[in-house]
Amino acid sequence: MIERAMRLDPASNHQYLHFLGMAYLLAGKYETAAALLRQRILLVPETDFSRAALASALGHLGEVGEARRIWRELEEINPNYSFSEHYGRLPFKREEDVRRIAEGIAKAGLPTSRPTSFPKSTA
């Protein structure tokens, strides 16, 4: 259905690339997911969401160095990014889908939860 939507509405391909990449990631087709998510990042360079998904796919593929490089880019774009907070807000129907994404990130040695020792703001 996503591929059909891409043909019918090519102006929105950048969004569909993310959704299609996520679908392949959740289906365990990590190489295809990574290729699609890389295309999405080329079209939307400031995306943190697609970078988190790409880091997961790369973690599943054992491409730890590349996953960490992508995560550093994500942190430059959004220094306050938190996987658990971000994905906790999304309407996933199946907990195992979020777990699969988190597992890929963890395989790359990247954080799936925000550190608990942030300095308190006095403002």
Describe the 3D structure:
The protein is mostly helical. It has one domain: Tetratricopeptide repeat domain (Serine Threonine Protein Phosphatase 5, Tetratricopeptide repeat, Alpha Horseshoe), CATH 1.25.40.10. The protein is 66% helix and 0% strand. It contains 7 helices and no strands. The longest helix has 14 residues. The radius of gyration is 15 Å and the shape is globular. The C terminus is likely disordered.
List the helices and strands and how they pair.
Layout (H helix, E strand, L loop, with lengths): L1 H7 L4 H14 L3 H14 L5 H13 L2 H14 L5 H6 L6 H13 L16
Helix pairs in contact: 1-2, 2-3, 2-4, 3-4, 4-5, 4-7
At a glance:
This protein is mainly α.
**Overall pLDDT metric:** 87
Query: What general form does the structure show?
Result: globular
Q: Which second-level CATH architecture applies?
A: Alpha Horseshoe
Percent of residues in beta strands? under 5%
CATH topology: Serine Threonine Protein Phosphatase 5, Tetratricopeptide repeat
Uncertain runs are 114-123
How many structurally independent domains? 1
Give the proportion of residues in helices: 55-70%
Sheet with most strands: none
How many helices? The count is: 7
User: Topology as H/E string?
Assistant: HHHHHHH
CATH superfamily: Tetratricopeptide repeat domain
Q: Which structural class do you get from the secondary structure elements?
A: mainly alpha
Output the CATH class name.
Answer: Mainly Alpha
What's the alpha carbon Rg, rounded to whole Å? 15 Å
Q: Determine the N-to-C terminus distance.
A: 49 Å
